[in-house]
Specification:
Two copies of one chain form a homodimer.
Chain A (H helix, E strand, L loop, with lengths): L5 E10 L3 E10 L7 E10 L2 H8 L3 E9 L4 E6 L2 H6 L8 E2 L3 E9 L3 H4 L5 E5 L7 E5 L4 E2 L6 H4 L4 H15 L4 E5 L4 H13 L2 E6 L2 H9 L4 E4 L5 H12 L3 E4 L2 E3 L1 H15 L13 E5 L4 E7 L7 E5 L2 H8 L1 H13 L11 E3 L1 H4 L2 H7 L8 E3 L7
Parallel strand pairs in A: 11-12, 11-14, 12-13, 14-16, 15-17, 16-18, 19-20
Antiparallel strand pairs in A: 1-2, 1-6, 2-5, 3-7, 3-9, 3-20, 4-5, 7-8, 8-10
Helix pairs in contact in A: 5-6, 8-9
Chain lengths: 380, 380
């Protein structure tokens, strides 16, 4: 029992002096309180939202490997500007991994906890790149029979974000939406939701093969931002769908502004007379990711009725309240192998996740290069 | 009577081919309907918001003068990019001038209109760079006795914008605000409002002499964006006031992002533990002007709880409704020589407003270089 309770955990530390250090440490798993369970984490995705905490903005082209095969250590440097932003986490050894799934291997005394013993559950809350995770029974989402941990590893971040985008669109009075980096796992889910819910969706991708992926799953509007006709294609799709809200995973560069500009052109197509301050239609872009960490830049060629802002899942869930959020979670569990199915390029162990050649691949956050961590791979 | 009814009017036309043409035309003043009056416009300011319509984004360094002394003509070229944005007003001869004040010289048959005969009134609604303006009696703001047209020329745009900023701050749950280009006429009004209403205000200026102007009227927090200590000064003022909303007249460049960054640093000073997505305090910048027409650029170094958007007076007034707006207008009329007093560098005739050397001055929209047009100068 005491042996079973030690577990490997991945840690990220930003050290005074400007170095990121990634390590594996052996930590004791706590004895569960009556309302808690211990989940053996069998699958946890590496989402872009995990990589912010994991890499801390370090320049991973400077990454160096040391340590042993079982306990690899990766170090990399951080620029002074990034170090300034990391002041709040300096010299703290932080666990990583937002979500995952696994088997309940131990349970506290309460009936609710005991009822979960042996069940496959999905969990959210950080420190998932760990062999074992202690968590409240009430926070476990029980997966339907026949669902593996790998099937259920991505039950929260992407599915709830995709559902949150559609809910935000409705709440703010829009009737159709735009999504960038649209061929991602999240983007594919969003297409399946919008097809099921009959919501207009304009997908923006960067490559023709990404457009193909989306067309195959039934997407109607796919615009390739690398095409010379992009602005015209986008404007036409916006005019057809009436989309006036966008969710942008890129963040940096000119894309957010281009979307607002195209929305303005589409809005003015139906205008009857010249309006000196542009269309009165409110046009909104929410930036929810930072695939391009560079500065955001836009020409204000879209009138005065516009907004750009940050969008984050947690405040959204807090805003709608527990019951509304629970309904979303139950939809995810019920449709985890269809609407909310994720696909992964590769499954790695904790030590595997710290191999430089693997980091070079998943660190790019390229569409179609998503990794799954199995923290118990080779250790069961 | 028929002679009295012809009046000069300033017109701005964007011509196919890429030329802006500014002219004076003689137009017949309409016979007022029962509910209307004719105002002889004696004073009308040249606000930045007028210059958008007037110059249409033309490159005024290419401006050429022709015509006669009484009927000058100014032409200038527009870039292809600007021409694209001006498609909606192509070859339309548009009158200019948002607001003004003058004497009611003729009135329709209704008692409300007749009651205004001989009164000095402030009016809003465009086409104020005209000798005569026909307008509904109900839309005239009667100025208190002893108020000249010049005193009352700027009753609407700046005063209501300044009041609208404070009202928006309250409505969106903030308790103090930031203002850029803060030594402007509008900025000075905002200081007087905030001092009277005990609202914290952080003023951002670009020059030490502008800081002096504001300190003289009682401003507490003035930060000079040209000073090497600007970011520290701004952060300290934000921490002291708790300001989490800003109104920015500049638009282009990096200032909006710098304000958000300083707000984030101020918010994190009171944070107890590292939050990977930054502070949860919502930070907002509204861009209401475009003194810098260049692109807006920002690094997203201020967490995820932020927004940047356009802000415009008319939608704000529509949102609060007629009665609330009327209360604001009455406050302006009552305090037009104190809180809402404007100062002008120079008073010009309609022909004077089209002199290249004058355009070169007021076209810069520099703080302290505000012009007043008297459309009846030399013609009364």
């Amino acid at each position: 029992m005491t042996n079973a309770r030690m577990g490997l955990q991945l840690r990220s530390t930003v050290k005074t002096g400007g170095t990121l250090e990634l390590t594996l440490v052996s930590v004791p798993t706590p004895e569960p309180k009556p309302e808690e369970v211990i989940v053996r984490v069998d699958a946890s995705p590496i989402n872009p939202s995990d990589q912010g905490l994991l890499f801390a903005g370090a320049d991973m082209s400077t990454a160096k490997a040391s340590g042993t095969a079982d306990r690899p250590v990766v170090t990399a440097s951080l620029s002074p500007a990034v170090m300034k932003a990391m002041a709040g986490r300096l010299d703290q050894s932080l666990p990583v991994g937002n979500e995952g799934a696994g088997t309940v291997v131990q349970a506290g005394a309460s009936p609710a906890a005991q009822a979960l013993l042996g069940k496959t559950v999905a969990i959210l809350g950080g420190a998932m790149y760990s062999q074992y995770r202690c968590i409240k029974a009430a926070h476990c989402l029980v997966l339907p029979p026949g669902t593996t941990a790998a099937d259920g590893a991505s039950c929260f971040v992407n599915p709830l974000t995709a559902l949150g985008m559609v809910a935000t669109m409705h709440a703010e009075g829009h009737t159709a939406l735009v999504h960038t980096a649209a061929a991602s796992n999240l983007g594919q889910m969003l297409n399946r939701i919008c097809i099921a819910d009959r919501v207009g969706l304009v997908n923006i991708v960067r490559k023709p093969e990404q457009a193909e992926v989306l067309k195959k799953i039934g997407a109607t509007h796919v615009c390739n931002s690398s095409a010379p006709t992009f602005m015209d294609d986008l404007t036409a799709a916006l005019a057809t769908t009436g989309a006036t809200i966008a969710f942008d995973a890129i963040g940096g560069g000119t894309l957010a502004g281009q979307i607002l500009t195209a929305m303005e052109i589409a809005a003015n197509r139906s205008a009857k007379e010249y309006s000196r301050y542009g269309s009165t239609t409110h046009k909104q872009v929410y930036i929810y990711g930072s695939l391009d960490r560079g500065p955001t830049q836009f020409n204000r060629t879209f009138g005065m009725a516009w907004g750009i802002g940050g969008w984050l899942l947690t405040p959204f869930l807090q805003k709608i309240g527990f019951e509304a959020a629970q309904k979303l979670r139950e939809r995810v569990a019920a449709e985890i192998k269809t609407t909310f199915a994720s696909t992964y390029t590769k499954e790695v162990s904790l030590a595997g996740a710290l191999q430089l050649d693997e980091i070079a691949i998943y660190g790019k956050q390229a569409t179609g290069e998503k990794y799954l961590v199995d923290p118990n791979k080779g250790l069961r």
